[in-house]
C-alpha cells in the first residue's frame, strides 16, 4: 500500500517577537578566508569538499569584491556545518547519502555551447543566457529586447555606479544550509539582472541551465556545478524570470547546486517561472531566497520532474506592509526518485498576503515526495491573510509522500488557513468517465493530467506553459 505521513502544525504564540526586520545596506570589507587555515573541524568530508571547491576556482582574473565576500562568508559557515543526515529535522525525509558517498568533483573549466548542447535546449524567443556547469557560455540579447537601464550579464561587466548599487544588497541575506554555503564558495561567477526604478520589462529573461559534464555511477565520480544569479528590481520595476534546468542525457550522473537571490523593492513585481527537468540519475538542490519591500509582489510557479534527488529550498521574507507572495508548485515522481520542497515565508509587517498551493504526484513504487512548508506570521504582521494548501496523489503501491504544513501565528488579528489532502484518484470521478464510454486507462490519464494543469496554467508565458504541459504528458 502507499505511504503517507502528515505532520501538521498550527502554532499560536503570545506577542513576544522582536521588531520587524528591515534592509541593512551595510558594506563590509572582504577578507580572504582559506579553508586550510582552519585549525579544527568536526566533519572531515566537508573539509575535503571545501578544499576541492577552493582548488577549482580560477586564480585569475581575481573575483569581484561582492563575489569574494560571498566566498569568504560561505567558507566560514561551511566549515562549521556537518553533512546533513536523516537525524537532522530539515532532512528527516530526504536522504542525501548518495551524494555524500560519491567522489565529488567541482567543475572548473568552462565549456562552450555546441550543437549537442543546444539541441537539448528548447527554442526560446526571450532574451536568454545558456549557463553550462555554472558558467555563462552564451548570452543572446537583441537590441530591442530590453529597455534602457536594464542590465543582464556578469557582475564584472556592470558599470561602476550600478556595481556599487547592486553591491549594497549582495551578501546581505540570511544564511541557508550547507548546500547554500557550498554554492557560495564554489560559484565561478555571479550573474546579475538589474531593473531600474519604474521600468516594466515586457520580455521575460530566460536562464537556461545545462549540465554538460557527467560522471560515472560505477566509479561514483560526481561533477558538481554551482551557478549563482542575483536579481535586483528597483522601486516600481517589473520583470519575469524563467529558469530551466536540463541535463545532457536522461541517465546523466551529476549534481547541480544553484542559488537565486531576488530583491524586490517597494511596489516592484517579479514573476518567477521554474522548470526542473534534470536527469533521473542526477542530484538537484536549489536555493531561492527572496526579500520583498512594501507593496511588492513575488510570484513563483514551479514544475519539477527530474533528478534522483530534487530539492528546492524557497525562503521569502516580507519586509514591508501590503506585500504579496504567491508560491504555486507541482512535483511529479515517475521513477525511483525523491522530490522535496522546503519553503519558508516570514511575514513581519501589516496587511501582508501569502498564497501557497503545492501539488505532487507519486507514480512509482519507489518514488517519494516531501513537502515542508512553514508560514510564520510575526507580532507586527497584523491583518495578515495567509493560506497554504498541499494536495498529493499516490498512484502506485508503496509510493510515499511526507508532508509537514506548518503555520506559526504570533499576531492576533489575522486570517490564516492551511490544509492537506492525500489520496489516489477518486472512484466517483473514474465512474463518471466510464459511464460515458471512456475506458479506465484513458480516464485515469485524463484525471492525472488535469491534476497538474492547475499549476501549469499559472505560468505567465504561453511558450513555457506549452513546454511544461508537453513534458508532463510525455512522462505520463
TrEMBL record:
<dbReference type="InterPro" id="IPR037284">
    <property type="entry name" value="SUF_FeS_clus_asmbl_SufBD_sf"/>
</dbReference>
<dbReference type="InterPro" id="IPR011542">
    <property type="entry name" value="SUF_FeS_clus_asmbl_SufD"/>
</dbReference>
<dbReference type="InterPro" id="IPR000825">
    <property type="entry name" value="SUF_FeS_clus_asmbl_SufBD_core"/>
</dbReference>
<dbReference type="InterPro" id="IPR055346">
    <property type="entry name" value="Fe-S_cluster_assembly_SufBD"/>
</dbReference>
<feature type="domain" description="SUF system FeS cluster assembly SufBD N-terminal">
    <location>
        <begin position="66"/>
        <end position="206"/>
    </location>
</feature>
<dbReference type="InterPro" id="IPR045595">
    <property type="entry name" value="SufBD_N"/>
</dbReference>
<protein>
    <submittedName>
        <fullName>Protein ABCI7, chloroplastic</fullName>
    </submittedName>
</protein>
<feature type="domain" description="SUF system FeS cluster assembly SufBD core">
    <location>
        <begin position="223"/>
        <end position="451"/>
    </location>
</feature>
<dbReference type="Pfam" id="PF01458">
    <property type="entry name" value="SUFBD_core"/>
</dbReference>
<dbReference type="GO" id="GO:0016226">
    <property type="term" value="P:iron-sulfur cluster assembly"/>
</dbReference>
<dbReference type="Pfam" id="PF19295">
    <property type="entry name" value="SufBD_N"/>
</dbReference>
Amino acid at each position: 500500500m502507499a505511504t503517507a505521513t502528515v505532520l501538521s502544525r498550527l502554532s499560536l504564540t503570545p506577542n513576544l517577537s522582536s521588531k520587524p526586520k528591515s534592509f541593512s545596506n551595510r558594506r563590509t570589507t572582504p577578507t580572504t578566508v582559506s579553508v586550510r587555515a582552519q585549525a579544527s573541524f568536526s566533519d572531515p568530508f566537508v573539509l575535503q569538499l571545501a578544499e576541492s571547491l577552493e582548488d577549482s576556482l580560477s586564480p585569475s582574473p581575481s573575483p569581484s569584491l561582492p563575489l569574494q565576500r560571498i566566498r569568504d562568508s560561505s567558507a566560514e559557515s561551511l566549515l562549521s556545518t556537518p553533512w546533513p543526515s536523516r537525524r537532522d529535522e530539515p532532512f528527516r525525509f530526504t536522504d542525501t547519502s548518495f551524494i555524500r558517498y560519491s567522489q565529488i568533483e567541482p567543475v572548473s573549466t568552462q565549456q562552450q555551447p555546441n550543437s549537442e548542447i543546444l539541441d537539448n535546449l528548447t527554442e526560446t524567443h526571450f532574451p536568454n543566457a545558456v549557463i553550462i556547469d555554472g558558467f555563462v557560455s552564451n548570452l543572446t540579447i537583441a537590441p530591442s529586447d530590453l529597455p534602457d537601464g536594464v542590465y543582464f550579464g556578469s557582475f564584472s561587466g556592470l558599470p561602476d555606479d550600478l556595481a556599487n548599487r547592486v553591491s549594497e544588497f549582495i551578501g546581505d541575506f540570511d544564511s541557508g544550509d550547507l548546500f547554500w554555503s557550498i554554492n557560495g564558495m564554489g560559484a565561478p561567477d555571479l550573474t546579475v539582472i538589474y531593473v531600474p526604478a519604474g521600468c516594466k520589462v515586457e520580455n521575460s529573461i530566460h536562464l537556461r541551465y545545462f549540465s554538460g559534464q557527467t560522471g560515472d555511477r560505477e566509479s561514483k565520480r560526481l561533477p558538481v556545478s554551482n551557478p549563482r544569479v542575483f536579481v535586483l528590481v528597483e522601486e516600481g520595476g517589473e520583470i519575469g524570470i524563467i529558469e530551466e534546468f536540463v541535463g545532457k542525457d536522461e541517465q546523466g550522473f551529476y549534481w547541480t547546486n544553484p542559488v537565486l537571490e531576488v530583491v524586490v523593492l517597494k511596489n516592484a513585481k517579479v514573476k518567477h517561472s521554474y522548470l526542473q527537468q534534470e536527469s533521473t540519475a542526477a542530484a538537484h538542490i536549489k536555493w531561492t531566497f527572496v526579500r520583498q519591500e512594501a507593496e511588492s509582489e513575488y510570484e513563483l510557479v514551479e514544475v519539477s520532474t527530474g533528478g534522483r534527488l530534487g530539492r528546492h529550498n524557497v525562503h521569502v521574507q516580507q519586509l514591508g506592509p501590503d506585500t504579496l507572495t504567491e508560491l504555486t508548485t507541482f512535483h511529479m515522481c515517475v521513477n525511483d526518485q525523491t522530490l522535496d520542497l522546503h519553503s519558508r515565508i516570514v511575514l513581519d509587517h501589516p496587511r501582508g498576503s501569502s498564497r501557497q498551493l503545492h501539488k505532487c504526484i507519486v507514480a512509482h513504487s519507489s518514488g517519494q515526495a516531501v513537502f515542508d512548508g512553514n508560514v510564520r506570521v510575526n507580532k507586527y504582521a497584523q491583518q495578515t491573510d495567509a493560506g497554504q494548501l498541499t494536495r498529493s496523489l499516490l498512484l502506485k503501491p508503496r509510493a510515499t509522500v511526507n508532508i509537514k504544513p506548518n503555520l506559526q501565528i504570533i499576531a492576533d488579528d489575522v486570517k490564516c488557513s492551511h490544509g492537506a489532502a492525500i489520496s489516489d484518484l477518486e472512484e466517483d470521478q473514474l465512474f463518471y468517465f466510464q459511464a460515458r464510454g471512456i475506458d479506465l486507462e484513458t480516464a485515469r490519464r485524463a484525471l492525472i493530467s488535469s491534476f497538474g494543469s492547475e499549476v501549469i496554467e499559472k505560468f505567465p508565458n504561453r511558450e513555457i506553459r506549452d513546454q511544461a504541459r508537453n513534458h508532463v504528458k510525455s512522462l505520463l
